[in-house]
Design a protein that fits this description.
By secondary structure, the chain is α+β, with helices and mostly antiparallel strands. The protein contains 10 helices and 13 strands. It has a domain at about 35-245. The strands form 3 sheets. It has an 8-stranded antiparallel sheet. The chain has a 3-stranded antiparallel sheet with strand order 3-5-4.
């Protein structure tokens, strides 16, 4: 739920793609920085398995010389007019998602690699079929019968645990290290970690749910679900202004000051740089932190409006920083009121999450609400399914969360981080459809 600032004059809600020609080296072949955003679909392991999805295939070598699986890759299936970016980073953000983590079965490294290869091979092919034909055409009697694909997009991330278990620990970037403990953490181990992340988004919840069930069914007993969480945003159809920043269940705008692919600093903020060596497979990729954040909504709404605004540091009515005129105004952290007190309180979330407090930390945030009703003890199970995409979680999410902890973020009194994971999403080369045949 943290904020990261953009450069003045950039529109945080603008679309578009980076300028062409911004290329980097990755895995021994030319990989464009647009590669990460070049097509939408499923990510996979080359060597554990890679395939063509919707005419797009990719691989970035982890390093040469191993026969058992020495490369990682990601594959994005073409997904509608916004084939310039993966579903997880698509603009506008889909109204419904489900994010889940699975563990790959197997005790020995070779068994883990074999199972992962088979699962990813299946997911690659099925992701293309789901978009091009729709689930009902692929799976007779599917719940989505009569529904269009609804901008269905599938993205897969790799957990550090998979690399360790598959005998590829030397190819695990330090960026993929486990997150430290934070003051707002109340983590449930069953809702943390995972070998693979499956991120499915669409404009219709039935399409999302049906696609997730189908992909897991096709994976069979080679994986088991570790945790899963469905999320949602407001529907563009019901929004008075579909370009406005969505609100979370606390009533606050959520997603202001987000970097976008059109901004000059997007690459350095969101895309990883690993140009050489054993980590080259992630050059131009992105690391995503996933957090399950429960909101203490009864306590929150017991506050007066002004008290809630002081906690966040923004007006509830329009999202403007306190003392500012509009949502896109840069928070003035030096402003003082007539009594000499900061206009934006010292413990306000906006202040502590700002680049001035985090040594310039920035990340691309995608937040979704979740509402699972009430548990048997009468406790509300609702909050934020938070995903943060960045070049390096250590200087991105971890830096921001540490600042929130050390500054005693006022928002921490009303939230609990109950689930946590970090995954790597490798880049997508501009071309390479012939590579899949070689690998498989």
């Amino acid at each position: 739920m943290s904020e990261t600032a953009r450069e003045p004059g950039n529109d945080a809600r603008s679309g578009g793609s980076p300028e062409p020609g911004n290329e980097v080296r990755g895995g021994g072949r030319r990989v464009s920085r647009r590669g990460l955003l070049s097509a939408a679909g499923a990510a996979g392991l080359t060597g554990l398995g890679a395939g063509a999805v919707g005419g797009y295939a990719s691989a970035a070598a982890l390093g040469a010389g191993t026969d058992e699986g020495s490369a990682l890759a990601s594959v994005r299936a073409r997904s509608g007019p916004e084939a310039g970016r993966p579903p997880a980073l698509r603009v506008p953000t889909p109204a419904h998602v489900q994010v889940l983590a699975v563990d790959v079965r197997g005790e020995e490294a070779a068994d883990v690699r074999a199972s992962a290869r088979e699962v990813l091979d299946v997911w690659h092919g099925e992701a293309a079929a789901l978009h091009e034909r729709g689930l009902a055409a692929v799976d007779e009697g599917a719940p989505s019968e009569g529904l269009r694909p609804a901008s269905l997009g599938v993205t897969v991330g790799l957990g550090g645990s998979l690399l360790d278990r598959a005998g590829l620990a030397d190819r695990r970037p330090p960026h993929l290290e486990d997150l430290p403990e934070f003051g707002a953490d109340d983590l449930e181990p069953a809702w943390c970690g995972g070998d693979l992340m499956l991120h499915v988004g669409a404009e219709d919840p039935v399409v999302v749910s049906s696609a997730v069930e189908y992909l897991l069914r096709r994976a069979g007993d080679r994986v088991r679900v570790r945790w899963a969480l469905p999320g949602f945003q407001r529907s563009p159809v019901t929004a008075e202004d579909h370009t406005a920043t969505p609100r979370n269940l606390m009533g606050s705008v959520d997603g202001t000051v987000n970097p976008e692919p059109t901004e000059p600093l997007f690459d350095s903020q969101v895309l990883a740089a690993h140009p050489e060596g054993a980590l080259a497979w992630m050059d131009g990729g992105s690391y995503v932190v996933v957090r399950r954040i429960r909101m203490l909504l009864d306590d929150w709404f017991a506050l007066e409006t002004g008290e809630r605004e002081a906690v966040i540091g923004r007006r509830l009515s329009d999202g403007a920083p306190l003392g500012g005129e509009g949502e896109d105004d840069r928070p003035d952290l030096a402003a003082r009121d007539d009594d000499g007190e900061p206009v934006i309180p010292r413990r306000a979330h906006v202040r502590l999450a700002s680049p001035e407090s985090t040594l310039g930390a920035r990340m691309l945030r995608r937040g979704f609400n979740f509402d699972l009703g009430w548990d048997t003890g009468g406790r509300r199970q609702a909050g934020l399914l938070f995903t943060a995409w960045q070049a390096d979680p250590r200087s991105g999410f971890t830096a921001v969360q540490t600042s929130l902890d050390e500054g005693a973020d006022a928002l921490n009194e009303f939230i609990r981080h109950e689930g946590s994971a970090v995954f790597a999403v490798p880049p997508v080369p501009e071309s390479g459809s012939g590579l899949a045949g070689t690998l498989l």
